[in-house]
Amino acid sequence: xxxxxxxxxxxxxxxxxxxxxxxxxxxxxLEANGRTVVATREPSTGPFGVMARQALGRxxxxxxxxxxxxxxxxxxxxxDRMDHLAAxxxxxxxxxxxxxxxxxxxxxxxxxxxxxxxxxxxxxxSRADVADLTIFIEVPAEECARRIMARGDATEIFEAxxxxxxxxxxxxxxxxxxxxxxxxxxxxxxxxxxxxxxATEVAQRLG
Length: 207
Known about the structure:
alpha/beta
């Protein structure tokens, strides 16, 4: 019997790099080409993902008002990832769908390692499946911070420019640690130009 497993594609990058925009554009392109696509994101909309998003936005805090401990937050992300894989990603792939996720393992390896031991972060995420293709959108931290300010978003924990610079360095270490199927794309180009580069990379793998 023919293996109908789909393809797991992840869009990664610093906050402000355009991961959400490019994931959405890729989904529309694939659907226009007749592909069955499941669009998703991390943190997910599952129970652990909701808690992680609340913690990032400081809507979930400790009883005294302090932010959630970084180690607890990292564990929330890892728990959400395993739940996300079991509840949505793996079943969709088994049906032959293309799954496009806005963020995945490299985000945890980058962001959580700025406040936790990097080896521990890698260990708690070691059981997560390797994506078939991870697109890393490269944008300098200063440009990402400018974009965040321009869109008027409420600032999250990780969106200060100094932190973005540290996260950028951590992303490089994360990609070196988990380089499988990672492709870099210049995110300083126009939105449509970046989308075209991503679509080309995906088409080459889908055939």
